[in-house]
Amino acid sequence: MTNRYHPPAGKGRFLFDLHVHGSGSADSRLSDREAMTRAREIGLRGLAFTDHDRLTVARSPYDDLVLVPGAELSTEWGDLLALGIRELPPPGLSVPGLIDDIHRQGGVAVVPHPFSEELRRICMNEHVFDIIGLVDGLEVTSPKRSVDNSKARKVAGGHGKAVTGGSDAHTAEAMGWGFTACAEGTVEGLLEAIRKGRTEAFMRI
Ligand SMILES: [Zn+2]
User: Are 84 and 105 in contact (CB under 8 A)?
Assistant: First the structure.
C-alpha cells in the first residue's frame, strides 16, 4: 500500500498531520469532511485544520480521530502555526506578542516551512532566530520544493525545540505527506509532547 507510513502507527505511536487547509481556506480544494475521511484512511490519529488567519474548531464525528484546533497566522515575518488555541489572537500584535498570546491560551506556536529564500513572504528565514527561544517547534516536512527541511530539523535540534510534521495539504491527495508521531493520542497529550520536544516528524515514503 503506497499510502501506508513508515514507521507505522502502532502501540505507543500516534500520527498527526498538523498542517491541513480545509473548508476555511479559500485556496484549498479540500473540504473538512474529505480531510477527516482521508486522515482515517491513511491511519492518522488526528489532524489540525490550519486555515489562513482563521481558527477552525471542528468536532470530530469519529471516535478514533481527534482534531487539534489551529490556524496558520500571517505575520509581518512569515507564517506561524498556532495549535491548541481557543480564539484568534487580537490584531496588531508583534510576532513575539502573538506567541505570548498563543501560550496564554494554552496553545503551542510552531514555525511552518521556516527556511526558503524564494518564499520570503511566508517563510520566516532569519527571523526564526529572533523567536527561537519563544516558539515550541519547527515544522520539518514542508512539501514546498524550495523549503530547506533539513536546515529546519538542524535548527530545531540545536535549540532543543520540537520537530513537527504536516502536509500543508490543499487537496486530499496531498494529505499525510508529512506527519508528526507522538506517544500520546489526545490533543492535550500532543500539545504537551510538542512543548517538551518529544515529537518525531516524518515524510511519506
Ligand atoms: Zn499552510
Answer: yes
**CB contact at 8 A, 32 and 169:** no
Q: Which fold has domain 14-203?
A: TIM Barrel (3.20.20)
Is the confidence at residue 181, as pLDDT, over 90?
Answer: yes
Give residue limits of the domains in the chain: 14-203
Q: Across the strands, what pairs with 201?
A: 180
Contact criterion met (CB below 8 Å) for 165 and 179: yes
Distance from the CA of 175 to the center of ligand 1, in angstroms? Answer: 12
Q: What is the pLDDT of residues 12-58, one digit of tens each?
A: 789 999 999 998 888 889 999 999 999 999 999 999 999 999 998 88
Stated pTM of the model: 0.93
> Which residue in 73, 72, 69, 74 sits closest to 47, CA to CA?
69
Tell me, in angstroms, the distance from the centre of ligand 1 to residue 171's CA.
12
Place of cell 517547534: 137
CA of 81 to the centre of ligand 1 (A): 8
Q: Which of 124, 108, 120, 116 is nearest to 161 (CA)?
A: 108
Q: 3-state class of 129 per DSSP?
A: helix
